[in-house]
Write a structure and sequence with these properties.
The chain is mostly helical. The chain has a single domain, classed as Up-down Bundle (Growth Hormone, Chain: A), CATH 1.20.1250.20. It contains 14 helices and no strands. α10 packs across α12.
Length: 380
Amino acid sequence: MNSINYIYIARASSSFIKNIFFSFFAIWLIYEGILTSAQTAIVVSIAILMSRSAIVFAKVSSQFKQKNVLRFNMVIATFSYLLIFLLAKWKVGALIYWAIIAFVIGSNVAVTALSLLSLVAITQTAQHHQKGFAMANIALNIGAGFGPLIGSLVLKFQPDYFPLVPIIFSIITIIITNKFPSEPAPPKIKRKKPTQRKINKAFASLLLINFLTFIGYAQMYDVFPLAAKPYISLHLIGLLFFFSAIIVVVLQLSVLKLCESLGNRRSLVYGNALLLLGVIFFFFIRAKLLIFYILAISLCTLSELFYTPLYRALSVKLYKYDNPVMALAWLSFFAGLGEATATYIGINLVSYHHEGYSFAFAIAAVAIASLLCVFTFRAE
């Protein structure tokens, strides 16, 4: 097997860590009765924001081989989830402890993703980046599909042990790193005067578009499970995410070829338009009709096939300073800012049975993102 493929396998196994736990983090905290809904919103939003905050750690991370960064991160993940288990077992209700642990596990997800995506970039040539990121997205969604399914089953039968399951995949990821391809030595950091750097308007526009898109993205992965819980079972929610993963695995490479023929601008407009339509179907959660859930999940998932690989490839291309780690870190940070904002607002609105306002907010954000794509990227 090509050694690069082991990066994708590690991307899948590490994705299990996040998607087993994060998809049901809010539901589990409320089930345990440790925190209030408002406190849960704070804790989960911190975890989500930090899960995209790779920019905070990018400068330090880029000074080491990414394989070693990943191994260290998996050790931290193991101890973190063990600590979550103990906090719940001892019924520790102090918000500060949960905020700190949310900060740690979120940061852990961010650095893990940054290391693996950086390995995709630095072990392949520029012309293979978009396909490489597409393959990474397929791997990510294997975890995003099976993870919530596993999480829902554990929550149903053994909820007390829910935080321990991610540890299994931390250990698996450490083992897989032994098969990674060799990577170049980390570049030496050269100090530059601030005046030497100019604002890259195209890159800044991409970050803003990414921020707005992920307000919509959050509705599927972070707001929908909590909003749908009174109407459908956790097991069905897990199956819907599993269905989402199948869509990604089957269609990602076909959509990639389509994007190559459409060009950047049309691909991003179509991707955001599909996301907008998907969020519209979330308005029908209370109807308890499976077809609406399937349509919402399918459209949101299809949208991701368009924008995820392209946003990443464009970030590496548009960032002026030839540093894929920093480019991907900035992209991830703005995605997290959008996702965390939408999640905090969404969880609070769901607690008052006003989830419709969360979906309306997302629709407005994604519509603006679509318009910005039209004006930012040239027709090809």
